[in-house]
């Protein structure tokens, strides 16, 4: 009886039943398809996976998950999240783990704030907080040509996007979109304050219709840039206001909604 | 890993803020960050937090033979370690310049000031003395390591108890903690380091600089002092020329700060002693509070249903009458008529949008009802679009469903949900209106 209960604890659970719950590294999750009628043994499931053609249940492993045979292997601790695929119902969709960390790992397509650390030939080296600096070509700016070089100094802030971000490879950034437009990217102004927050907070802030951002926008007129690498650049009219905004944003992570509302109302009064 | 470089804009902002007498964390020029002292379950173990800078102090003791030239004195040993845990730029197992400087300063502050009575650590002269070892680990680096480390060292030493020893003739007995109460070290005074950062060639001065302030500072002055205002050590680094009255002013500030910190340490020690005596809960697990991440909580939003009916009426009133209403019904066959030309169905894409919406909303019942709603409308839609309206009994039923009396009930749910639903209800109402018209015409 004891042995049975122990084994049942280590049996991988169905991913769909774990949504929103905490998962730990090393845990295995079953996809709803593979946990279908034949849940007796995993060998049988792999057979079924090979033989039966599944109708377009595409599963995408997001951050914190890895594919392990026909299962998902958790590699980070955090909450399991899932997004249904657009349009078609049924299985599939994106699974990922919402984890709390500070170290950024470059991801293709992410918009980040980097600091130029060196100029070497026709490349800039940009620190983005990852394990190694990203490279940024001087031609990857709007309107840049061989003659017309962008004015970038060492120590400047760059808002750009990753075009190459692979494991064990130097990531590459650009400051233009696919049509050659800056689209808000490029060198960030000389004023303002850069500070770091956790990656979880950045994701929260960048979520569509984030309350914090809407409330902050009502406080003071401000310019703000969020990098997916946890860096925020903010500039308000005065140094005092900039400092307040930076501190409020940083503190938001550990405040409940009520506390936050109180602080915002107090700030807007003063 | 390399240190994150400081950007030009940060540097500029910091210096401008310092000129305006503002600091990043809202402190005043002479303010210290919050100091928090917590003790472990063992004696001689503590964590000192100075803002976000954290230092773990652990004292251990060992019986060794004394140094030849100091036969009656115990040995004190200090060791500060900067691990990668504190900041990724620190390399493990390497004596960096910063580390050497900090260790040296710590030794000067604590050993050379003779704050610990080393003679009381002697067991048998020339044979056995206690060696007291203070290990300090930096757990998190946010500037001003030396102040945090010196506080951690002295707190750990004050908290430490060594096993009792008795000497009878040639026999030395070492008592375990259970046999006899361990004895505290005899401490004469508590030297504490206070750091001052200078900016713009000494024009501006800040107490307790944090990591970013340390990066833009021109020079640093560290004064170690005890509460009797005796300077234990003083060190200036960064190659800055300081005037005499600047140093004097710093020493005055240091005196005030040291008095405050000493009081805090004594309070913390007394508190811990009392808790242990009373048999309460102590140790890091009890004293260090967890920081909860609350920014990700989804609050359940209450739905306001007070004036929904009025709103729904308003929407109906505001809605434009359908423009392409054809007044002439076409009679295809007896009993079958068509009003207007079939309009393209706009319900298909609406459904998709709703699918995406599902994730964000939290109330299941509302969603369910909306879904049913759309299905309902779909059925209605089909009839208008694809097939000509059939004037039969079933058609009459259809009209009855869309009677205005029942309208608010349906729109209530929709108006509440979101803008998108509102739009859909608008559409629905438009359709309904049209149908009503049609019905009227037909009845006429």
From TrEMBL, chain A:
Any one Pfam family here would be RRP40_S1
Localization per Swiss-Prot or TrEMBL: Cytoplasm; Nucleus, Nucleolus
Q: Where is the Exosome complex component RRP40 N-terminal domain?
A: 21-100
Could you cite one Gene Ontology molecular function of this protein?
RNA binding
A GO BP entry: U4 snRNA 3'-end processing
GO CC terms on record? cytoplasmic exosome (RNase complex); cytosol; euchromatin; nuclear exosome (RNase complex); nucleolus; nucleoplasm
Q: Which UniProt keywords apply?
A: Acetylation, Cytoplasm, Exosome, Isopeptide bond, Nucleus, RNA-binding, rRNA processing, Ubl conjugation
**K Homology domain sequence ranges:** 192-239
Q: Which family does the similarity line name?
A: Belongs to the RRP40 family.
The annotated subunit structure for this chain is: Component of the RNA exosome core complex (Exo-9), composed of EXOSC1, EXOSC2, EXOSC3, EXOSC4, EXOSC5, EXOSC6, EXOSC7, EXOSC8 and EXOSC9; within the complex interacts with EXOSC5 and EXOSC9. The catalytically inactive RNA exosome core complex (Exo-9) associates with the catalytic subunit EXOSC10/RRP6. Exo-9 may associate with DIS3 to form the nucleolar exosome complex, or DIS3L to form the cytoplasmic exosome complex. Exo-9 is formed by a hexameric base ring consisting of the heterodimers EXOSC4-EXOSC9, EXOSC5-EXOSC8 and EXOSC6-EXOSC7, and a cap ring consisting of EXOSC1, EXOSC2 and EXOSC3.
Instruction: Spell out the protein name for this chain.
Output: Exosome complex component RRP40
Q: Which organism is it from?
A: Sarcophilus harrisii (Tasmanian devil)
Its encoding gene is what? EXOSC3
From TrEMBL, chain B:
Provide ranges: composition bias, Acidic residues: 349-361
UniProt GO molecular function: mRNA 3'-UTR AU-rich region binding
Keyword Ribonucleoprotein present in the record's keywords: the answer is no
Query: What GO cellular-component annotations does this UniProt entry give?
Result: cytoplasmic exosome (RNase complex); cytosol; nuclear chromosome; nuclear exosome (RNase complex); nucleolus; nucleoplasm
Instruction: Specify residue ranges for compositional bias: Basic residues.
Output: 425-444
Q: Which residues form the signal peptide?
A: none
The domain of life for this entry's organism is Eukaryota
Q: Where is the Exoribonuclease phosphorolytic domain?
A: 32-163, 189-254
Q: Tell me which Pfam families the record gives.
A: RNase_PH, RNase_PH_C
Gene Ontology biological-process annotations: exonucleolytic trimming to generate mature 3'-end of 5.8S rRNA from tricistronic rRNA transcript (SSU-rRNA, 5.8S rRNA, LSU-rRNA); nuclear mRNA surveillance; nuclear polyadenylation-dependent rRNA catabolic process; positive regulation of cell growth; rRNA catabolic process; TRAMP-dependent tRNA surveillance pathway; U1 snRNA 3'-end processing; U4 snRNA 3'-end processing
| Region described as Disordered: spans on this chain | 338-363, 403-444
Please classify the protein's predominant subcellular localization into one broad category: cytoplasm
Which controlled-vocabulary keywords does the entry list? Answer: Cytoplasm, Exosome, Nucleus, RNA-binding, rRNA processing
Q: Where in the cell is it found?
A: Cytoplasm; Nucleus, Nucleolus
| Family named by the database record | Belongs to the RNase PH family.
Subunit comment: Component of the RNA exosome core complex (Exo-9), composed of EXOSC1, EXOSC2, EXOSC3, EXOSC4, EXOSC5, EXOSC6, EXOSC7, EXOSC8 and EXOSC9; within the complex interacts with EXOSC3, EXOSC4, EXOSC5 and DIS3. The catalytically inactive RNA exosome core complex (Exo-9) associates with the catalytic subunit EXOSC10/RRP6. Exo-9 may associate with DIS3 to form the nucleolar exosome complex, or DIS3L to form the cytoplasmic exosome complex.
**Identification of the protein by name:** Exosome complex component RRP45
Q: Which organism is it from?
A: Sarcophilus harrisii (Tasmanian devil)
By which gene is this protein encoded? Answer: EXOSC9
């Amino acid at each position: 009886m004891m042995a049975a209960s122990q084994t049942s604890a280590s049996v991988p659970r169905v991913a769909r039943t774990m949504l929103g719950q905490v998962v730990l590294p090393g845990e295995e999750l079953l996809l709803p398809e593979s946990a279908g009628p034949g849940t007796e043994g995993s060998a049988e499931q792999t057979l079924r996976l090979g033989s039966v053609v599944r109708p377009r249940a595409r599963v995408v492993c997001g951050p914190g998950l890895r594919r392990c045979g026909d299962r998902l292997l958790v590699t980070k601790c955090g909450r399991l999240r899932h997004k249904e695929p657009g349009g078609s119902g049924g299985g599939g969709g994106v699974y990922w783990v919402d984890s709390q960390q500070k170290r950024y790992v470059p991801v293709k397509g992410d918009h980040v704030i980097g600091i130029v650390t060196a100029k070497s030939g026709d490349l800039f080296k940009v620190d983005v907080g990852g394990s190694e600096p990203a490279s940024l070509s001087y031609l990857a700016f709007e309107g840049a040509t061989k003659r017309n070089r962008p004015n970038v100094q060492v120590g400047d802030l760059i808002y750009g996007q990753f075009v190459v971000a692979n494991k064990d490879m130097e990531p590459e950034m650009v400051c233009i979109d696919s049509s050659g437009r800056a689209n808000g990217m490029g060198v960030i102004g000389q004023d303002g304050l850069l500070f770091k927050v956790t990656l979880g907070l950045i994701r929260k802030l960048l979520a569509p219709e984030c309350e914090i951002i809407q409330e902050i926008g009502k406080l003071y007129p401000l310019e703000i840039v969020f990098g997916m690498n946890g860096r925020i650049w903010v500039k308000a009219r005065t140094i005092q206001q900039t400092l307040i905004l930076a501190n409020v944003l940083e503190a938001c992570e550990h405040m409940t909604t009520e506390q936050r509302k109180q602080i915002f109302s107090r700030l807007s009064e003063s | 890993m390399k240190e994150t470089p400081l950007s030009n804009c940060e540097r500029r902002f910091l210096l401008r803020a310092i000129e305006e007498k503002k600091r990043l964390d809202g402190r005043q020029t002479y303010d210290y960050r919050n100091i928090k002292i917590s003790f472990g379950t063992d004696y001689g173990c503590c964590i000192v937090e100075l803002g976000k800078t954290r230092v773990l102090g652990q004292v251990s003791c060992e019986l060794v033979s004394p140094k030849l030239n100091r036969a009656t004195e115990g040995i004190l040993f200090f060791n500060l370690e900067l691990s990668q845990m504190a900041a990724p730029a620190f390399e493990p197992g390497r004596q960096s310049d910063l580390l050497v400087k900090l260790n040296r300063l710590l030794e000067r502050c604590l050993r050379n000031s003779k704050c610990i009575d080393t003679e009381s650590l002697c067991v048998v002269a020339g044979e056995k003395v206690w060696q007291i070892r203070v290990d300090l680990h930096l757990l998190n680096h946010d500037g001003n390591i030396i102040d945090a480390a010196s506080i951690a060292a002295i707190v750990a030493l004050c908290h430490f108890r060594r096993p009792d020893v008795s000497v009878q003739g040639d026999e030395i007995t070492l008592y375990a903690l259970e046999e006899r109460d361990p004895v505290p070290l005899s401490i004469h005074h508590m030297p504490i380091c206070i750091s001052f950062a200078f900016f713009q060639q000494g024009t501006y001065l800040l107490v307790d600089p944090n990591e970013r302030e340390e990066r833009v500072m021109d020079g640093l002055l560290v004064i170690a002092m005890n509460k009797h205002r005796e300077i234990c050590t003083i060190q200036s680094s960064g190659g800055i020329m300081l005037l005499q009255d600047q140093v004097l002013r710093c020493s005055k500030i240091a005196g005030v700060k040291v008095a405050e910190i000493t009081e805090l340490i004594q309070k913390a020690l007394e508190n811990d002693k009392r808790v242990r005596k009373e048999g309460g809960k102590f140790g890091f697990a009890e004293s260090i509070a967890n920081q909860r991440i609350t920014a990700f909580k989804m609050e359940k939003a209450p739905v306001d249903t007070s004036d929904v009916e009025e709103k729904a009426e308003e929407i109906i009133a505001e809605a434009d009458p359908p423009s392409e209403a054809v007044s002439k019904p076409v009679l295809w066959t007896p009993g079958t008529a068509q009003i207007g030309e079939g309009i393209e169905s706009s319900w298909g894409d609406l459904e998709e949008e709703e699918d995406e919406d599902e994730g964000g909303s939290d109330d299941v019942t509302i969603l369910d009802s909306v879904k049913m709603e759309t299905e309902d409308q779909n059925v209605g839609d089909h009839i208008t679009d694809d097939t000509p309206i059939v004037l039969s009994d079933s058609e009459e039923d259809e009209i009855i469903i869309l009677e205005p009396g029942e309208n608010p009930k349906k729109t209530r749910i929709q108006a509440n949900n979101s803008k998108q639903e509102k739009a859909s209800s608008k559409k629905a109402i438009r359709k309904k209106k049209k149908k009503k018209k049609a019905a009227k015409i037909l009845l006429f």
